[in-house]
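Lest this sound abstract, we let one protein speak, letters for residues, whole numbers for local backbone shapes, and leave readers to judge:
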Amino acid sequence: MTEQLYPIATVAKLLAVSRWTVKRWIDDGTIEAIDVNPSHSGRAALRIRQSTLDEYLDRLAANRPKRRKRLTGTAVKPIIRDESRTNKSPPPKRRTQRPVRQYV
């Protein structure tokens, strides 16, 4: 059985990156690609093997730092209002309407 070959756009969707990033990885040698159109008459049709993609994902998983454990309890401290500090007088009244200008 033949191995699955993926075009660059499909690999970009699978990895949630742009196709330009995948092309850059191919140019850097991070991911190996196969040219399925070896004649130089047209543009290159690059495909990536399933095994190459699996190896890349394994390398990513091996280099990923371990997640830290979450601290127990609430992440946000509750607001405690001190009744002795509250100002019991109402705020000053604001003008709700502008004075009418009278033209002479």
About this structure: The longest helix spans residues 50-63.
